[in-house]
Amino acid sequence: MTESDKAPTISDLPEGCVTDILLSITSPRDACRAASISKALNLAVDSDAVWERFLPPDYHEIIAREVSPVVFESKKQLYHLLSESYIILDRGYLGLKLDRQSGRKCYLLGAMDLSIAWGNDTRYWEWGHIPESRSSSLSMLGFFL
């Protein structure tokens, strides 16, 4: 079989074409699976164009609101950072994490920012602090028998 008789492979496609194919992928999981098919797909899956599609449209604003600066070298790394643990926003009153499967935002709300029924009634609620907590004050519902 001569070089001209060789069957074309995905590696023969221009990188832009491969990236366009990957942009039609619906989830980060699909992107990671596609990366195992060939070297060309693996290179394309690592592109910022693919991973930016999985980030929320307002990710620039989210990063700007973070208490500690987020350091990342690629959109793929940023996606993984945002989906591994909560980042703390707005002076520590709000946390945000991306759902690893869907990329949807999950919020962690500070109790002090909530309007809790009978929140000041110590028969039901107690405000305290747990050293391991990210929050300076926690609201604990008391169960009394």
UniProtKB/TrEMBL annotation:
InterPro entries xrefs: F-box-like_dom_sf, PP2-like
Protein name, entry field: Putative F-box domain, Phloem protein 2-like protein
Organism: Helianthus annuus (Common sunflower)
